[in-house]
Design a protein that fits this description.
This protein has helices spanning 2-10, 16-30, 36-44, 51-64, 69-81, 87-96, 111-117, 157-163, 187-195, 210-213; strands spanning 126-127, 135-136, 143-151, 171-175, 183-185, 200-207, 219-225, 237-238, 242-244, 247-249, 254-258, 261-265. The strands form two sheets. Strands 1, 2, 3, 4, 5, 6, 7, 8, 11 and 12 form a ten-stranded mixed β-sheet that branches. Strands 9-10 form a two-stranded antiparallel ribbon. It is an alpha/beta fold.
Length: 273
């Protein structure tokens, strides 16, 4: 709330393009001082409503602060649709738009702490090999939940079908055979995961639409990206034991993931509180 008040204090009823500059300036002063010079230069060259300049500034700012990406994207869309809309109205629209506002972040459970606590009972905990490396693509980088498994190869109808159902905080683990030829998951499926309360998705394979997925409050890990979508000629298997990166993923077991890696356990390792 305090941040919004500060932003509104800096913003006047000018064109939406000027509003974007004011928002960026406020954010850079209060959160990212290193961007202040960029904003100052941008303002010095801003003699007219330049969509190109605004786009460059928006991308630079989004690279520094992913939590504000949704807001700035919405503001940019507003510029395109209605250039005369006041900045105050634009902020009010964003604040009242439930599809853009983020829910409370999930609790963070460090995999390193879990390894320290349960190192004496290796039968309860397995660590995914760090090679090949799984990269974070969703905005949520720390997530956990019960495992739901799928085995498929370069075909994802079952992935869509599964993510269309309530996830109840589960983590979908998809063994795509480590294929580097197509993407198993894109932004549409990632949005399904977010909307249907899946804690995260682990893809032993590739994803696409990584920039859009990076704006979503959902955990997504994969081996890499590929622009080509998967085929739809076979469904795959669900609820089966899948094995990759030195670990067996069993339907109903627990998975914990963060920036340090992925661990799985037969039982819940964290306390409910």
């Amino acid at each position: 709330k305090a941040r919004k008040k500060k932003i509104m204090r800096f913003i006047y009823n000018r064109t939406a393009t000027s509003a974007l500059l004011k928002i960026s300036q406020t954010i850079s002063y209060h959160h990212h001082p290193s961007l202040s010079r960029l904003v100052a230069i941008q303002k010095a060259h801003h003699h007219s409503c330049s969509t190109t300049n605004t786009t460059i500034l928006r991308h630079r700012l989004c690279e520094k602060n992913h939590h504000l990406t949704s807001f700035l994207n919405h503001a940019y869309i507003t510029v395109t649709l209605e250039p005369t809309l006041s900045s105050f109205t634009m902020l009010q629209t964003y604040r009242n738009n439930s599809t853009l506002s983020s829910s409370s972040p999930p609790p963070i459970i460090a995999t390193a702490d879990l390894c320290d606590d349960f190192i004496t009972s290796p039968d309860r905990l397995s660590v995914v090999n760090p090679s090949p490396r799984f990269y974070n693509y969703g905005r949520i980088t720390s997530f956990f939940g019960k495992i739901y498994t799928i085995r498929c190869f370069e075909s994802n109808p079952l992935v869509r079908k599964t993510l269309s159902q309530p996830g109840n905080g589960q983590v979908l683990v998809v063994d795509g055979g480590a294929s580097q030829r197509v993407a198993i998951l894109g932004d549409e499926l990632a949005k399904l995961a977010h909307d249907n309360n899946w804690a995260g998705v682990i893809i032993n394979g590739c994803i696409r639409d990584s920039k859009a997925i990076g704006m979503m409050d959902v955990g997504v890990k994969a081996l890499g990206t590929h622009p080509l979508k998967s085929i739809k000629n076979h469904e795959g298997e669900g609820g089966v034991i899948v094995s990759f990166s030195g670990v067996e993923f069993v339907h109903g077991h627990w998975l914990y993931s963060d920036e340090d890696g992925i661990i799985v356990s037969k039982v819940q390792l964290h306390t409910s509180s």
